[in-house]
Specification:
The complex is a heterodimer of chains A (about 110) and B (about 625). Chain A has one domain: Orthogonal Bundle (Helix Hairpins). Chain A contains three helices and no strands. Chain B has about 625 residues and is mostly helical. Chain B has a domain of about 70 residues. The radius of gyration of chain B is 30 Å and the shape is globular. Classes of the chains: A mainly alpha (about 110), B mainly alpha (about 625). At the A-B interface, helix 1 of A face helix 26 of B.
Chain lengths: ~110, ~625
């Protein structure tokens, strides 16, 4: 498959993520949109990695060039998992305190 | 013997140490201790001065360099002392007369509280230090430091009794008037630096440097220096502070406002004689201003009734004489008169202090009279002072005044005529003062009459010494006509001072006639004063006498044309510029910041979505710039 498809898909995912973060007020949905953006990036990384790796294989059957992108994806997934646990904990605390997960209630820093 | 020139710095340093001790420990030290430190340091300086003087007389003049005071680029201003004929002579006058006045003060100021007593002596020592710096400095900058220092001490001592508002006003007046002159002096120094690139006397007055200067520059520099001198030495138009300066204690008037500080201007011009001799325009102005001041002050002195005011105007008048001599190019005569004047005017001021002391603070001569019976020593010494200032041979004033009159005659007989007339007035008002104060009936209160007494020894001994000096002080400058080689002062000063006029233009017979003329006329004036004032009765002044009594209304004139408009401008500044413009500007800045920050605050909505939106928009903008605009 041409690389363009992957790029368009991941751009679309990323844009959906941004729009979601910008427009939604529900903390959980915002959270999911952030995950969406992260995974859009992951997808792009994997796609490019695969592309470079295939190109390198043509010259040398035993090369590892291009695989580092896929490694990065694992790191991002680990960090995202850690972030999810913290983020969800915050959301739970938020719900306990104000009985809502609407982020617009949390504007007390202003006052 | 050479080594005294190496410790020449001790001469000003000792009074400075005295100032520090007396000033810092004035609350702890007892009065005798303060007196001892105050007088002792000056005496030590005097002894050193005599030593230095003898060395210089033996031909050991030199410049003692200590360190570089200012060093910027090519301009180097050293801190160094000029030990030569002129400065060593002034050293003698300052420390000698200064010591006598210090001794006198120990008794005169005895009734002051202990700490004020210490403060007084601290100021007095600081003054002597500054004055010594002024005359010893080897360049105009060091002189200027001393110049400012004496101005400060003058201010502090005039306002010594600071609890009386009119005294502090007099001190302010003296300080402000002096500042006007100081500014001109400062500009003159800048001008010198710009044109010559140095401020050291030796370099400026060297023939090569003078030849480089344009006549216009020399004229401007000398004129500015002269304006500085008119402030410090109380000449028209800046003389009005000196009579008011009599608010200070009497010994202060004697030391600062008669013997030493006010002669700083004469010292400066005598020091710069090489420049002045090349500026005929300035010389004329100096002579005319000097003569005008002499005449104006003498006429005012005719009608003054405050014993110290008479002496103050007399001082202004005598300083005018000295400037006349300077303007005629007879620098030696001016310095000579500085010396004799220091003797007899200090004598008379101290004498007046003795009278004031005996009268319990009374200064109005109309309330005195017949004091000669009770104050014998004061009377006799005061009489000697009067004879000396009147210029009767062989008293000191005769020789110095004769030298000045002769130089005036040589320049222009009209100047001579006016100067002689002024000398007559001088004799007349001095003897008027003497007769009203010391002869006739006592006109004060009964209590004062009972209180009358001769002053104690620390006050009378300086009087006697100064009286002796007033008699013999003139013998160092006997004119050639009377004794060949008699002008030892002129000879002594000849390495530093090149006189413009040597008195050679006048024949000996003319000189005799002039001497006899002036002496005869002065005697007539004295006799006239005797008949007019031996039995003085209080009368109201009318007509012209009233104008003189009110000092030609010069103070009122200055008030009207300078002080009053300045006050008006100040009021306008206060009511309009200050409240509207300056306050408006400052408050406006505050209001602007307030308003703009209130607008900016709206950006901080507190909504997370807004922040994220802004973040995204800015990131898109940055990417847009990166991709499309940057090439």
């Amino acid at each position: 498959m041409p690389i363009n498809y992957y790029i368009f898909l991941s751009l679309a995912l990323f844009a959906i993520g941004i729009v979601g973060v910008l427009t939604r007020r529900n903390a959980i949905i915002i959270f999911m949109c952030i995950e969406l953006m992260l995974n859009a990036v992951n997808l792009l990384l994997v796609a490019f990695s695969k592309m470079h790796h295939l190109k390198a294989l043509a010259d040398n059957a035993a090369t590892t060039v291009g695989t580092d992108g896929q490694l990065f994806v694992f790191f991002i997934m680990v960090v995202a998992a850690a972030e999810v646990s913290v983020g969800l904990a915050i959301i739970v605390m938020m719900y306990r305190n104000i009985h809502s997960v609407d982020v617009n209630f949390l504007n007390r820093l202003k006052h | 013997m050479q080594n005294v020139l190496q410790i020449v710095y001790l001469i000003p340093l000792l009074p400075l140490i005295g100032f520090l001790i007396n000033g810092l420990a004035r609350k702890q030290l007892s009065k005798p201790m303060v007196s001892l430190i105050g007088c002792g340091t000056i005496l030590a300086s005097f002894v050193l001065s005599v030593w230095v003087f003898l060395q210089v007389k033996g031909g050991n003049a030199h410049v003692a360099h200590y360190f570089d005071f200012i060093s910027v680029g090519k301009l180097v201003i050293p801190f160094s002392f000029q030990v030569d004929q002129l400065s060593s002579l002034f050293l003698l006058i300052i420390t000698g007369v200064g010591f006598l006045i210090h001794v006198y003060s120990t008794s005169y100021m005895q009734e002051e509280k202990s700490e004020h007593f210490g403060r007084y002596f601290a100021y007095l020592n600081l003054f002597v230090f500054s004055m010594l710096l002024l005359v010893m400095g080897a360049n105009f900058v060091v002189m200027f430091i001393g110049w400012e220092g004496v101005g400060l001490c003058s201010y502090l001592l005039i306002g010594y009794w600071f609890k009386k508002p009119e005294y502090t006003k007099a001190a302010n007046k003296a300080f402000i008037m002096n500042r006007i002159g100081d500014l001109a002096f400062l500009i003159a120094i800048f001008w010198l630096i710009a044109k010559v690139g140095t401020v050291s006397y030796n370099e400026i007055f060297s023939a090569a440097n003078i030849a480089k200067l344009k006549t216009s520059d020399i004229t401007i520099i000398t004129l500015l220096l002269f304006v500085g001198a008119t402030g410090k030495s109380a000449q028209i138009p800046l003389y009005t502070w000196l009579p008011d300066a009599m608010a200070g204690p009497t010994p202060v008037s004697a030391l600062i406002h008669a013997a030493t500080m006010v002669t700083a201007g004469i010292y400066m011009i005598a020091r710069s004689n090489a420049l002045y001799s090349l500026a005929p325009v300035t010389m004329d102005i100096v002579a005319y201003i000097g003569l005008a001041t002499a005449l104006l002050a003498a006429t005012i002195a005719l009608k003054q009734n405050d014993i110290k005011k008479v002496l103050a105007y007399s001082t202004v008048s005598q300083l005018g004489f000295m400037f006349l001599a300077l303007g005629c190019g007879a620098y030696t005569a001016a310095v000579f008169h500085v010396m004799t004047h220091a003797f007899f005017k200090a004598l008379m001021f101290l004498g007046s202090g003795s009278v004031i002391h005996a009268m319990g603070g009374e200064q109005d001569i109309r309330n005195m009279g017949g004091l000669s019976r009770k104050l014998r020593i004061t009377f006799i010494t005061f009489l000697i002072g009067c004879i000396a200032i009147a210029g009767i041979p062989p008293f000191s004033g005769f020789f110095s005044k004769d030298a000045i009159l002769l130089s005036a005659f040589e320049k222009n007989p009209v100047l001579y005529g006016i100067a002689l007339f002024t000398a007559l007035i001088t004799a007349f008002y001095m003897f008027r003062l003497l007769f009203i104060t010391f002869t006739g009936k006592f006109r004060g209160t009964h209590e004062q009459e009972h209180h009358l007494h001769e002053s104690p020894a620390p006050m009378t001994i300086p009087l006697v010494i100064l009286a002796i000096l007033s008699i013999i002080g003139g013998f160092v400058g006997i004119p050639d006509v009377l004794m060949h080689g008699g002008d030892r002062l002129g000879e002594f000063l000849s390495p530093v001072i090149t006189n413009h006029s040597e008195g050679h233009g006048v024949s000996h017979s003319t000189e005799y006639i002039l001497m006899i003329l002036s002496t005869g006329l002065v005697l007539v004036a004295i006799i006239f004063a005797w008949f007019k004032f031996k039995n003085y009765q209080r009368t109201e002044e009318k007509g012209f006498g009233k104008v003189l009594e009110n000092k030609w209304y010069v103070d009122e004139l200055y008030d009207r044309i300078i002080v009053h408009p300045l006050n008006k401008v100040g009021e306008f500044m206060n009511s309009f510029i200050e409240t509207k413009v300056i306050d408006g500007l400052v408050n406006g800045v505050g209001r602007l910041v307030n308003y703009s920050s209130r607008q900016l605050r709206l950006l901080q909505s507190g909504q997370v979505g807004n922040y994220v939106l802004l973040m995204v928009v800015s990131m898109v903008l940055i990417f847009a710039i990166q991709f499309f605009l940057r090439k």
